[in-house]
Amino acid sequence: MASATNSSPLESSASMRLRIAAALAALVLLVILIQSLILVYQLDRKEEEFIDTQLNDQIAYSMEVWSKSPDLAFPNTPAMWLYRIGQGQPPVNVPPFLAELKPGNHEVYLGSKEYHVAVREDGQARYILAYDVEDHEDRLDELIFVTVLAAVALALLTLLGGYLLAGRLTRRLETLADKVEQEIPGFLREPGMEREVAALAEALDHYRSRQGEMLERERAFAANLSHELRTPLTGIRTDAELLASLPDLPEAVGRRATRIVASVDRVNALASSLLLLAREARPGAVAEILLRPAIVSIWESVQLATPKAVEFILEVPETAGIKGDPVFFDLVLRNVLDNALRYSDEGQIVCRLNGSRLSVTDSGPGFTAGELEQVFNRFFVGERGTNGLGLALVRHVCLASGWRVSARNAPAGGGELTIDFGCQLAAGGITDSSQIAH
Q1: CA-based radius of gyration for the chain
Q2: What is the pTM of this model?
Q3: Are residues 222 and 126 part of one domain?
Q4: Once rounded to an integer, what is the mean pLDDT over residues 75-94?
Q5: Helix, strand, coil proportions of the chain in percent (round to 5)?
Q6: Domain containing 311 — which CATH number?
């Protein structure tokens, strides 16, 4: 069987509306973070300069007043400690990490704590002033936290605002998509559209116009071709029938006349298929179709036109039926069964109803993955030749009827074509299994 699954739609990515809002929010967040980093860097420098100024002023004051009043030389803040080491005396009660520092200003880390240290010397002693800058660091950390929090909050507000504002643009695009999808007549371009959206709408209008003209030409050609073919084909068929009915006709001539009639019928069917494919297929009168007798009748007709020693197994209950166009159902099943018979020279063809799905499995070689993707196309040329219009017509009619057609390689071998009637199944399920052998 040559058959294929319908191509699945591409998965949708994130909406343009969300992308615009996210890009705007990301840009705002980036700008705020850059400004915040610059601000924090500048503030940190000012804090460092302020701390160094305090250290320099305090140690200069302490060295100046030490000779007059040592008690007044010590700093008044608990975050500073002053140590004095007399000339030639060992450091007493001075932390080792401070006693080893050379004259100048230093930044010293003890664990997670940071100290700024000023070391000075005069002719009589060495002075060490240590400053615990934890309060400054805490203020800086708090500023960074508040800045980042404000940046994130502003970015979220920008995301929300951008999403709402972008909705105006995307709403126009969604409206255009709906009009194209539903084939709403009239021009897509409307007054008041944004320039970019108006350009897209105008391009779609031009495309729809060109497509309509092209389809109209194709339909007219197919209709004219079908009409022009019917007259000579009817004459050929009539002459072939008259020839076959002559008395005392040689058997070989009779077979040829019968073959001419069958060939003419096949050409007529092909012309009808072309005409149906050229037109927009619409179901006619909807009626309840009993599946089993309808399938039996179609199979007998198909097998009579192409006789083969193939066993037909029908697993459809007597009461099962669908609601649909009988003409469309006949056309679909006739092409499906004819396709199965074409690739089954022996063995079995199994027609099985499972829920709302009617499957036809042949005993042929199956098909390749490449064939599965394209075999529903008109005149697809696969490894086993050209498939013609049969399965293209099946898909065309199934789509018009609200049915779904798919195909695969059957687990037990052969190709399997499945028609899912969906909620249109009127009654029944697999309750028995019977065979019609030919």
Answers
A1: 45
A2: 0.45
A3: no
A4: 84
A5: 55, 20, 30
A6: 3.30.565.10
